[in-house]
Amino acid sequence: MIKVGIVGGTGYTGVELLRLLSRHPQVSLRAVTSRKEAGMPVADMYSSLRGFVDLCFSDPADQPLQDCDVVFFATPNGIAMQQAQAMLDAGIRIIDLAADFRIRDRATWEQWYGMEHAAPQLLEEAVYGLPEVNRVQIRNARLIANPGCYPTAVQLGFLPLLEAGVIDTRHLIADCKSGVSGAGRKAEVHALLAEAGDNFKAYGVPGHRHLPEIRQGLARMSGQDVGLTFTPHLLPMIRGIHATLYGRLTRDVDLQQLFEQRYADEPFVDVLPAGSHPETRSVRGANVCRLAVHRPQGGDTVVVLAVEDNLVKGAAGQAVQNMNLMFGLPETTGLELVPLLP
């Protein structure tokens, strides 16, 4: 059994990790830390976990993670980097669901996240946890930088086109929408029901923190720098991401075949039949990204539609997928989930 700990189990990604790991056949949950809620039964905060998780939140000062094989950080940006080196030195593997290790360049990270990086020596070692691209490296990693929710959908949507070299990398567009859970479990005016309900708006147009992460990933896929316009939007729903991606074709290609062949052996990427329009509700609660590719009017513009649950394939589910790879388990272990509908 894999001995697992979670730092920051009170947020939405934390409870999603607990939901998945509590039913994982090869996992023994050892600790869920929270200074503020230390001593409270986890199921008292999240009644959905009654009968599945019998742990109490523990104070990290009591060192409840020291005998874990792997620790998930479901914390705000800037927390994992302060504790990572000591844990790695103790032989504990780390999967960070925040952004501390996603961007290789220290100066770029500090520019976008507004703080000094506490563990720059680990940036080169950290493996970016997108299994469809870095599966081999993930298997041998000590430290995983779990991708962001928007970056997962955008990269999986553009991946076949960039690998095949069939689109102009200078003019890519990612028009993305997310439910309010993407903002986390905290008190903010924009996430109030009266603010987000019955409303739809763009945000972060001058620059969003996920932009350098997406650019970095797309550049690795294409072997060159990319020009990307990324515009996120807030939808009046709880879960889900819908990414509409645009590129200009540089040569003729059978797009449907290209996508089907690239993802034929990927358990958590579903390429829909030609002409499909994926819905966010079709992935709710499941660790899958559904894709559809279009070429409107047979022109030189390609449109890719990508949907995922931002808390599962966009966060906790992908983190468990990475854990499975790190510990030599079948990649789908504990993740063969049927989406919730309606």
From TrEMBL:
Main location: cytoplasm
Pfam families (UniProt xref): Semialdhyde_dh, Semialdhyde_dhC_1
Listed SUPFAM superfamilies: Glyceraldehyde-3-phosphate dehydrogenase-like, C-terminal domain (SSF55347), NAD(P)-binding Rossmann-fold domains (SSF51735)
PROSITE patterns registered for this protein in UniProt: ARGC (PS01224)
Function: Catalyzes the NADPH-dependent reduction of N-acetyl-5-glutamyl phosphate to yield N-acetyl-L-glutamate 5-semialdehyde.
Record flagged with keyword Oxidoreductase: yes
Pathway(s) annotated for this protein in UniProt: Amino-acid biosynthesis; L-arginine biosynthesis; N(2)-acetyl-L-ornithine from L-glutamate: step 3/4
Entry protein name: N-acetyl-gamma-glutamyl-phosphate reductase
Annotated Semialdehyde dehydrogenase NAD-binding domain residues: 3-141
Reaction(s) this enzyme catalyzes, per UniProt: N-acetyl-L-glutamate 5-semialdehyde + phosphate + NADP(+) = N-acetyl-L-glutamyl 5-phosphate + NADPH + H(+)
GO molecular function terms attached to this record: N-acetyl-gamma-glutamyl-phosphate reductase activity; NAD binding; NADP+ binding
Gene Ontology BP annotations: L-arginine biosynthetic process
Entry's localization field: Cytoplasm
SMART domains assigned to the protein according to its UniProt record, in alphabetical order: Semialdhyde_dh
Native organism: Leeia aquatica
GO cellular component, one term: cytoplasm
Keyword Ligase: no
Listed PANTHER family: N-ACETYL-GAMMA-GLUTAMYL-PHOSPHATE REDUCTASE, CHLOROPLASTIC-RELATED (PTHR32338:SF10), N-ACETYL-GAMMA-GLUTAMYL-PHOSPHATE REDUCTASE, CHLOROPLASTIC-RELATED-RELATED (PTHR32338)
Residues of the active site: C149
Entry keywords, A to Z: Amino-acid biosynthesis, Arginine biosynthesis, Cytoplasm, NADP, Oxidoreductase
Family: Belongs to the NAGSA dehydrogenase family. Type 1 subfamily.
Enzyme class: oxidoreductase
EC numbers: 1.2.1.38
Gene3D superfamilies given in the database record: Dihydrodipicolinate Reductase, domain 2, NAD(P)-binding Rossmann-like Domain
Gene behind this protein: argC
